[in-house]
Structure formats: structure tokens, C-alpha cells
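Listing S7. Sequence submitted for prediction.
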Amino acid sequence: MRRTDHPLDLTAEVLLQGGVLTPSVRRDLADLNRQFLELGVAQELASDPRFAWSEAVRADLCQADAVTRERMAACPFALFEIVLPAACPGGGMASSRVEDAATTGVSGEPLHTRCLAFVYAALFVAWRLADTVPLATRVTLGLSPGSELRLNEMPLSELSRLAACPGLIRPRWPSHPRFWAMLRGAARARSSSALQWAHCVGVCLLGSDFSEGGGGEPAGPPPGHRPPR
């Protein structure tokens, strides 16, 4: 009897072939990955939970220059995942090392301002995907089915409040130095085939995330969605 492929397996396969995400979403995703890597290697954010890689992974990422990080960022999935909190009362930013730091990054903006702008942009991309390509949010951004439904039903005005909640962003595969070394090496070598292989490994790791439920919630069938905006 022929095995029936799991929908997530099919989505991952099409994802690698470039058939799920539109060019504009791929562009936005690469830009988010670039920002995530750029912020994550800042020494001032080494203790920030949003960039909580293992020491081995962080050391490897810090060896990548800006051009290499830009090539690393061009993945068909996010290098981070979004975990919606159960509640964020008041919508205020909790005291954090990022906000306490008065450090100014290379862009001239305080790091906590740049982090907040990054989180909001990531939420907006996820919000858009949840409405147009719902299954892709699970693969590209690690959203669980329940979180995807919540985001799908959320009005745009709520995103800025949600962006201020702590614990919303966390790195993918923070203790998997072999994947990060493979991705950095392929990007530094400017090898398309090596990058494709690294992307395949990343998708395989995504599969292990899904088997564990992803985002702290059990996996389940795609939820219903409202009509397109």
C-alpha cells in the first residue's frame, strides 16, 4: 500500500522547491533572518533570551562577516521561531537586559528599539502568512496550530501590543552547532549546492520540531480561517 505523505512533509518539500512562498515573502523572510543574525551577534545581547544560542553556536556565528550572514539569511524558513504567550497583560515591555542597555548599534538606533522593530516586523509577516498561506507559518516560523489560529483572528492593531511581550522570539536549533557551521560554511563558500544541502538539513530539523508539537503546543489539523482580508 502506498504511504500517504503527511501534509507537513509535502509542505516542506514544496518549500524547498520555492512553491509555497511568494518572492515578496521570501524577500521579507531573508530580511528578518538578516536582522536576527545581526542583532544576535551583538555582544550586548549575548544574554538576551531571544538570541540564546549555545556558546558553540554563538562562537561560530560571530565568525561570520556581514556578507556571509546575508547569504545565510536567504533560507526558505526563519532562523528563529515565534511563540505566542498565553497572555500579555497591559501590553507593557517587561524589564529586560536589552532595554536597560543604553548601547547604540551600527545603525545609530538603540538596540532595544531595533529589537522591538524586528519583533513587530516578524509578527506582521507571520500575521500575513496566517491569512494567506496558513500551513507555511508552521514551517517557516514555527507557529503551532493554536498560535496560528490566534494570530489569524488578531486585528492588525494588536500586533504592536503583542510585540512588546517578552519571550515572543527564540532561536531555532540553539544547541545544534553542526547545522549552523554547515550553513555558515556554505554561505562563506558561495556554493549554491552547499546552501541547498544546508536548507535540506534545516527542513529535516524542522520535522523534528513538528514531531514535538512546536511552540509548546501539540500538533493538530489546520484550523479554520476567516475570509481573506
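Caption to Listing S7: primary sequence and predicted C-alpha cells for the chain studied. The longest helix spans residues 111-132. The chain has one domain: 7-211.
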